[in-house]
Amino acid sequence: MLINELQNKNIMIWGMGAEGRSAKEYLETHKITDNIITYNDETDSHKLADILAQTDVIIRSPGVSIYKPEIKQARSAGIKITSCSDIFLSEIRNNHPQTKVIGISGSKGKSTSVSMLYHMLHKLGYNVALGGNIGKPLIELIDGSYDYIICEFSSYQASDLTNSPHIVMFTNLFSVHTDWHGGHNNYCMDKIHLSANQHGDDICIVNANNAQLRDYCKSCHNIIYYGDANGFYAEGKELFWKEEKLLSIDELKISGNHNMDNLAGVACIIKSLDIDFRAALKTLADFEPLPHRLQKVGTVNGILFVNDSISTAPEAAIGGMQSFDDDMAIISGGIENHQDYQQYAEFINHNPKVKVVVTLFQCGPQIADTIRRFVKRPDFKLIEASSLEEGVKLAYEELGKINGKLVLFSPTAPSFGYYKNFMERGEHFIKIVKSLEK
Q1: In the sheet where 36-39 sits, what is the strand order?
Q2: Is the dihedral of CA 149, 95, 155, 429 positive or negative?
Q3: Half-sphere exposure in the Cβ direction for 98 (13 Å, CA)
Q4: Spacing of C-alpha 98 from chain mean position
């Protein structure tokens, strides 16, 4: 939806988080102020029917599911549903022909991927902006003048877009966020919808190593695959272009071999822009890793503590464990999200470097039960903790008994109900570790 289509309309902004506040401010700046109503589920639910009765357009925040009965009823009643992401893409595609939008999505790896891409393009001298789930709210970038806008899109943002980025990259697909979407298939379809409205010359870049992603992307537009020997791909710590070795993770400040897989996708984007990818990769020497993503917090008596609070899926925790070679303890658990932990448990069973697993929070019992069924190693210990403080303390103590070297906090589940977001959760972990150092 375009800004001029909001003129003289009764507008409801549903959700007053960062995006909702930015939407209200943007509309006020553009003199669309007379008929704006803000709405929050937590505080205004008794007013909803009255508000909808006088609403022409709903600008929904990402947390407002398109599957909510009230959203479906509003759509059936002829109320237009849009979002900051859709307004942004509509405006850029229609009114800013000099700007190319690059959208990255996936169950995991999107934040690091957009950050690496932004870093490279910025270092190479392009006028580039970063927005979406990371960086500025997208609606704030409409009036700028950029060569490229790099965007991280969640499935929440992508689910009902009427326009797509010029270049879309998908990192992977795992089973996460199923409650919002009403099921795993809806989640996958909503994620892939980011590319549904691409134009003739647009490109969709897809990770060939993720079978589920390949399956859902069969109908995508102008697909370029990464992750196989015909293009950019990673093997362990190293990045390749066909037979040419380009880079080792040991040359970078980031951790996690899976990030080389993400970098293969980013290099594919760079090449599709006709930019020298070898020169671009050289700029990553001073790229700083993002907080809460395999973040090295500190070492206490020879034991390294790593904060991977961004991990909200078992597959992400497996990637974290694969990133280190030392004997370790892993701390996992969060809100129940109907995930399958069998692969997670089987990975632990076949990897003797994982000596201890500490489970906690709502899905802790489910993780512990799965581990009991699948992990049969005599050198392994399972601990069920009542709090993150207790979990960190017990992991530290157990590793000390066996001369272990690493405590990995990789929750495998969302934080909602215990923390505002994964950032607050990660900061709590860091605070606990700092208390051990004293």
Answers
A1: 36-39, 11-14, 57-60, 80-83
A2: positive
A3: 9
A4: 28
- Of 349, 353, 354, the residue nearest 376 (C-alpha): 349
Please name each of the domains of the chain with its CATH number: 6-78 (3.40.50.720), 86-286 (3.40.1190.10), 295-437 (3.90.190.20)
Residue 169 CB neighbour total at 10 angstroms: 30
Rg for the chain (alpha carbons), in Å? 23
pTM tops 0.85: no
Give the mean pLDDT per block of 10 residues along the chain (438 residues). 93 89 92 86 80 94 91 95 97 97 92 95 98 89 97 94 98 76 89 96 96 94 94 95 95 85 97 98 91 89 94 86 91 88 94 96 95 95 96 96 95 86 94 90
Measuring CA to CA, which residue among 209, 264, 259, 220 is closest to residue 242?
264
**Residue in 25, 28, 136, 147 with CA at minimum distance from that of residue 92:** 147
The dihedral over CA atoms of 419, 108, 177, 52, expressed in degrees to the nearest 10, equals 90
Contact call for residues 23 and 82 (beta carbons, < 8 A): no
Distance, first Cα to last Cα, the chain: 55
Amino acid at position 275, single letter: I
The neighbouring-strand residues paired with 136 are: 131
Burial class for 96, CB neighbours closer than 10 Å (0-12, 13-18, 19+): middle
pLDDT of 178:
67
Task: Give me the helices (H) in 326-420, please.
Answer: 342-349, 364-374, 388-402
